[in-house]
Structure formats: C-alpha cells, structure tokens
From TrEMBL:
It comes from Gouania willdenowi (Blunt-snouted clingfish). Residues 759-783 are annotated as: Disordered. Its main location: cytoplasm. The keyword Cytoplasm applies. Residues 28-294 form the Dynamin-type G domain. It comes from the Eukaryota. This is Interferon-induced GTP-binding protein Mx. Pfam families: Dynamin_M (PF01031), Dynamin_N (PF00350), GED (PF02212), PH (PF00169). It is an enzyme of class 3 (hydrolase). It is found in: Cytoplasm. Belongs to the TRAFAC class dynamin-like GTPase superfamily. Dynamin/Fzo/YdjA family. GO terms for cellular component: cytoplasm; microtubule; plasma membrane; presynapse. Residues 643-732 form the GED domain. The keyword Hydrolase applies.
Length: 793
C-alpha cells in the first residue's frame, strides 16, 4: 500500500488486540479482523502458511485447530514469532511455534479433541508479509470421531458464529474447487450473517486438483454465487509437497506458473494467487478498520463509563493497599446512608414493583395498626351481659336509679387491657420489617463475609434490644391509660348525650365535611347488570355519597352514617373481587328498598383501606348480629336503659383510646426502634467493629477475583482508548481496492454521472456534451436509484 496513514491502521488494531487480549474473548468488544472459515481439509492451513511464507501450523487428521488462533502479521526486517502468553520469548524456529501452538491448545482442551473459545495470540514479524490480522477457527465437521463430544458440530458452528456475526468482521470463506460450491459450509455460514455478501471474500483452493476438462472460471469471474468482494483462486502445496518439505517460495512460483499457463485462468492471472490475496486482504482490512474505528471507539468509551464507578470504588476501598480502618469507615458510612435512604424514601433507584423500607412501615402504621385495634372489639351480646352484671353487682341489694360510674370504669379498663395484644403484634410487625430493611443494605458488605456477619449480629441485637424497650414503654402507656379514666375529655360524650348512638358520637368528634376517602366501588346487589354497577364513592365524617363518575357532578345518593355497621362477605373461590356490606342496626333500608349495600373492590389491599377509612368515620364491624330478642332480653326496663347508656359511653371513650393509640404507637416505635437503630448504626457501630478490623476486612475469594477482573478490564479499556488517540484524524481516505469486480469501468462511471445529471435537472439543462449511446440494457437506468444500483453492480 502506498498510503502511510492507512498502513498504520492494522498495527493500530494489533496494539488494541494487545491491550484487550485478556478481556476480549469474554467481553463485549469486537475488533476489526479477518476470520478464516472453512471445512476440514479445505486448505485453510495451507492458505495461512502461504500468506506467512513458512510452515508453522499443526497438521494431522481430524480437528487440528481446536482453539481460535489470532494471527497478526507485521511487516518487519527480521523474521520471528511471539506469543502473547509468553511475551518476550522470540521464536525464530517455526517448528517450535508449531509445537507451542499444540502445547497451548492441549493445556486448555486436553488431548480428547475437544475445542475451546479462548484464543491463542500469535504475532509473526517478517519482510515477506503485509500487515494483516486473521483469525483461524476450527474446521467445520459433521461427525464426531473417537472421544470427541457428540455435539462437536454444534460447538464448532457456535464458535464460528460468535466471531463472524459481528459487523466488524470480514469473512474469508475457504472452499475447495473440487467440491460443489452450492454445498460449501463456509459460504452457507457466511450467508447466514452476511446475506448480501458485503463483507465476505471467497477463496477457492485446490484448483489444480479439479477433474480434467473442468474449471472454476465462472466462480472466479464472480458470475456464479456472486459476492460483493468476489473470489480469489489459490494453489496450495499438495500433501506430497508438504511431506517432501517443498519450500513455500517455490510453491508460490509454481502457483504463479499454474495461473499463467492455464487456458481458463491466464486472462485473470494478475488477480489470482497468494500475493494478490495478501494485497486484497490488506486493502479490505484497512478500509474496514477505517470505517468501523469510530463505532468501535464509541463502544470502548461506553464500556469504560460503565466500569468507571465500580473501578473507582475498588481502588478507594482496596484493603490490600490502603488503611483497613479507612475502608471499614467508608463501608459502614455507605451502609448507614443506604438504610437512611430506604427508610426516608430517598433512594437513587425507585422500586416500581413492590413496597419496601419506609413505605412498608407507613403501611403498618396506618393500615395494619387500625385493623389490629378493631379486631379486639368485644362480642355485643357478651358485652351487654357484662355491663348488666357489673351494674347489678355494684347496686347490690339496692335498685339503682342512675348508671354507676364504677360499671363504666370496669368495662373500659377491661377493654383497654385488651390492647396489649394488638400493640405487641404491631411492634413485632415493625421489628420484622426493620430487620428486612436492614438486610437489604447488607449487599454493600457482601465482599467482606466476616464484616457482614459481625455487623448483622450487632445490628440485629440492637433491634431486638430496642424492641423489648418499646414493648415495655407501650405497656407503660397502657398502664397510664388504666391509671386514670378521663371522663372530662373534650371528645368524650357525657350523660347528657348518652342517648345518641355511637356512630353519631364519632361524627361529632370529626370535623364536618372532611373527605376521608374517594374511590371506585361496585354495587353488586343494585341493578340488573351482572356483576353490579361501578360508582365513584366519597366518604366524609358524616355521610357516604356516590356519583356517576370522577367529575362528581351527578350525585346518585348520599347515605348518612348514623347507625351504620360494617360486615364482611365471603364469596366463592372463583370470585376475583373482594366484598363487604353496610347495613343499618335499626333494620331500616339504607338505599331504596335495600336493607344493605353490598360493595366490591379489586384487591385485598383496597378492601383493607376502605375498612380503615370507614373505622375512622365511625362505621365499625358488627361481628355478631344482635337480634331483637337478644337486645331486649332484660326483664327490667330501667336496667335496659342503664346498659344502653353504659354501652354508648364505653364506645365513646374507647374511640378516644383507639385514636390516641393510632397516633402514639407509630411515634413510639419510630423513636424507640427505628430512629434508635439508625443512630446506633451511624454513631456507635463503627466503634464496636474497630477493634476487630484486622480480621473483619478479609475479602472473600470471589470478591478478590471480581476486584482483579474489574480493575484489569478498566485498565485494558483505558489503554485501548489511549492507543486510538494516537491515530491522526488527518489520515486520508484509503485507495480503492484494485479489483475490477468492485470497481466500475470508466464507461459505466461516465454513463452513471450522465444519468445523475439528468435526474437533478428539471427538463434537462442544455449545454451538456452529448454522450455515446449506451448499450440497450443501460437505458433502463433513469433515476437516482437506478444509477446507484447500477454503480454498485
């Protein structure tokens, strides 16, 4: 080549190959190169040896090439070879190069003819070569032999496809001339990844072994199964020549004489043979490198950016080269910061799949806790019986005219003491979720197993310690409530209002008109439509209203909350909805002629949310339907009125207690458990781990290997980019490839330019010199597309 800028491109890729040799075979980087593909005994090895001018490849029967051989040819004054796996060792004896290839292959694959995708890198310096980078792959085989794996054909094809499927790869498809070209395995594989034949070069071997009277003229003239880059014929040494150690230079001279003397090939002898193949491969590879280098550089930069953060962390936190105390401090700081972000909801990566961390705690605070508190509501019949016994026992032999305060206090204290179980269960749920959240942050410490184990033990111990303190504090809160029953509370309904039902007490407590919840619900027992009809519901402190849609313009109905109760409905196992009902305790119709409203939502979570909202509005569940007979089972009318009075007073006071605990419990666990654990990790954990730092900061073997691999890849990518930076941006365009198959003739080019000029003018501008009339088949080109297609052809 006469272009010195382009001459530098192939050595550039060789330098990149050196920089990336340790990571390229298993990393998403693909250098521009020529991959040699062919069936067994197709002459691949002979072609490569002819290009080098020396015998250096192992030979034998069966699969000889069992690992990819990345062969880099560099023009130099001296002749020697050098392997990447033993740098600095120059092989001047090419027989030793052959032995080293065999030894390195067997080192990884053994002697059982198995294959491996890990390449062998070989550089050959010689004054008789042009700059080239080729990859020799195992020959395609059909049948496994001896102790070869049964799927050897699949393994070889998979290995070949790993190389040739990338756009940066030129394919050198080697096919013997004495076989049917349509059955060529090499061309078939090339066509699978390069259907247009734009990056495939055909090499036809064994032209001298064709039957008498036959030739490959039509193939070599690119008229049969044409390729964009065409075909080149070569004549290799026969097995007899190889056994007789015929010199390759003599073989090249014999090859030249064969083409000059053969009647079918002598007119194209100047573009046949190994020297021409060297020249064409050099030019095509240089052009290909020039075209693909910008994209390859972008790939390198993308890979480097992806590794920058991790490599920087490994360099800063390397316990083998820096103070272990600093590494320990950084890891614990990251651990504390990650936990804080998870709880506060300020994580860099937002989870869109499920709730976690602080969101889960919030759900426990505002959904699970109210639900647990409502589960301890007493049985209605049993409660009234207990109130009746308390009143009569306090009155003794007397007949009381007024409800006794002691009966009220006795029932209230009993119900307050029942709160211990749901409160402890609430603390257990928070404790479990806090441990789960902390465990999510231990990923930062996975690389140090001993440190993770010790940290997990200390933090878990602290969580359980704070859990015990929290339960003790909650027990004190319950004891405080039992110590004094405050009937002077502003929200408590006194005797003057005791005739008012419970639900109205709750409404008095709430601010009128405040919207508690909005959402879609289905009325399943209203209308003739199967599955019911969906409405937009609005729940306030006083009423439950529903509208036609979310615009809230067409109100269908407004149901007051007085005397309403909530009841669960169990549906069949095939039902995909979740149901509950609302009914009036005085057996009145709640809507038109319906005694109850049967409502449905789409999920259990939505059902629980609606229940909690109704609890806040004062609509509580009635676990046992109290019949008229049971409510009026008292024989003394005065006792009945006293029981009813105490019953409503208890409901009013317990609603205050529930409200207090719904407010105080989340605050208590946040202060005693969550914030205390966060503060412990932030300020005390490091001091407890510090004395053990020498033993805790030992990395796991997997982490040590991962660290080395990441830093090695990062260093290799930086070196590769530094190599590319050495390329001058002023490298001129490469010269055209000297091949009439892909270079248009002067007449054809002249005609195409004429067509383009005509297509860009409105009516054909005058002044252009007349052209000779083209052949008939040229006249069909009358547009840009025709001209472009004709030029390519």
């Amino acid at each position: 080549m006469s272009n010195p800028g382009m001459e530098a491109l192939i050595p550039l890729v060789n330098s990149l190959q050196d920089a990336l040799s340790d990571v390229c075979y298993n990393y998403e980087l693909h250098l521009p190169q020529i991959v040699v593909v062919g069936a067994q005994s197709s002459g691949k090895s002979s072609v490569l040896e002819n290009l080098v001018g020396r015998d250096f490849l192992p030979r034998g029967t069966g699969i000889v090439t069992r690992r990819p051989l990345i062969l880099r040819l560099l023009h130099a004054d001296t002749v020697y070879g050098e392997f990447h796996h033993c740098k600095g060792n120059k092989f001047t004896d090419f027989n030793k190069i052959r032995e080293e290839i065999k030894a390195e292959t067997e080192r990884l694959t053994g002697r059982n003819k198995d294959i491996s995708s890990v390449p062998i890198n070989l550089l050959i310096y010689s004054p008789h070569v042009v700059n080239l980078t080729l990859v020799d792959l195992p020959g395609i085989t059909k049948v496994s032999v001896g102790d070869q794996p049964a799927d050897i054909e699949y393994q070889i094809r998979k290995l070949i496809m790993q190389y040739i499927c990338h756009e940066n790869c030129l394919i050198l498809a080697v096919t013997p001339a004495n076989t049917d070209l349509t059955n060529s395995d090499a061309l078939k594989l090339a066509k699978d990844v390069d259907p247009q034949g734009l990056r495939t070069i055909g090499v036809i071997t064994k032209l001298d072994l064709m039957d008498k009277g036959t030739d490959a003229k039509e193939i070599l003239e690119n008229r049969f199964l044409p390729l964009r880059l065409g075909y080149i014929g070569v004549v290799n040494r026969s097995q007899k020549d190889i056994d007789g150690q015929k010199d390759i230079r003599a073989a090249l001279q014999a090859e030249n004489n064969f083409f000059l003397s053969h009647p079918a090939y002598k007119h194209m002898a100047h573009r046949m043979g190994t020297p021409y193949l060297q020249k064409i491969l050099n030019q095509h590879l240089s052009n290909h490198i020039r075209d693909t280098l910008p994209g390859f550089r972008r790939d390198l930069e993308s890979q480097l950016r992806a590794l920058n953060k991790e490599a920087e962390e490994f360099r800063l936190d390397d316990p083998t080269s820096r103070n272990k105390t600093l590494t320990l401090s950084v890891l614990i700081h990251h651990f504390a910061d990650e936990l804080k972000k998870l709880i506060d909801g300020t994580c860099d990566n937002v989870d869109t799949v499920c709730l976690s961390g602080g969101a889960r705690l919030n759900q426990i605070f505002h959904l699970r806790l109210p639900n647990e508190l409502t589960k301890v509501q007493p049985d209605e019949i049993k409660l009234r019986r207990e109130i009746s016994y308390a009143i009569r026992n306090i009155h003794g032999v007397r007949t009381g005219l007024f409800p006794p305060d002691m009966a009220f206090e006795a029932i209230v204290k009993k119900q307050i003491s029942w709160l211990k179980e749901p409160c402890n269960k609430f603390i257990d749920m928070v404790n479990e979720e806090l441990i789960t959240t902390v465990n999510q942050c231990f990923d930062k410490l996975t690389c140090f197993p001993k440190l993770r184990e010790e940290t997990e033990k200390l933090v878990t111990t602290k969580i359980y310690e704070q859990e015990r303190k929290c339960k003790d504090l909650v027990l004190q809160l319950i004891e405080i409530q039992l110590a004094y029953i405050n009937t002077n509370h502003e929200d408590f309904v006194g005797f003057s209002k005791c005739a008012t039902p419970l639900s109205s007490h709750v409404n008095v407590i709430n601010t009128s008109g405040i919207v508690i919840r909005k959402g879609w619900l289905t009325m399943s027992n209203i209308g003739l439509m199967k599955g019911g009809k969906e409405y937009w519901f609005i729940l306030t402190a006083e009423s439950l209203s529903w509208f036609k849609d979310e615009e809230e313009k067409e109100k269908q109905y407004m149901l007051p909350l007085d005397n309403l109760k909530l009841k669960d409905i169990v549906k069949g196992f095939k039902s995909s909805r979740f149901y509950f009902s609302i009914y009036n305790t005085e057996l009145r119709n709640v809507y038109k002629d319906q005694k109850w409203l049967e409502l449905a939502c789409c999920s259990q979570e939505e059902l629980d949310s609606w229940k909690v909202s109704l609890f806040r509005a004062g609509v509580f569940p009635d676990k046992v339907e109290v019949s008229t007979v049971s409510l009026n089972s008292f024989t003394d009318p005065l006792l009945e009125r006293q029981v009813e009075t105490i019953r409503h007073l208890v409901d009013s006071y317990m609603s205050i207690i529930h409200k207090t605990f719904r407010d105080q419990m989340p605050k208590t666990v946040m202060h005693v458990m969550v914030n205390s654990v966060k503060e412990f990790i932030r300020s005390e954990l490091l001091s407890q781990l510090y004395p053990l730092r020498e033993t805790l900061m030992d990395e796991s073997p997997d982490q040590q290997q991962h660290r080395v691999e990441v830093l090695r890849k990062h260093r290799a990518l930086k070196e590769a980019l530094a190599v590319i930076e050495q390329v001058s941006l002023s490298i001129p365009l490469p010269p055209p490839v000297d091949s009439p198959r892909i270079q248009p003739s002067r007449y054809k080019m002249h005609h195409v330019m004429h067509v383009l000029r005509l297509s860009t003018s409105k009516n054909g501008r005058p002044g252009h010199p007349p052209l000779p009339s083209p052949p008939e088949h040229h006249k069909r080109h009358n547009s840009f597309e025709h001209a472009r297609a004709y030029l390519i052809k």
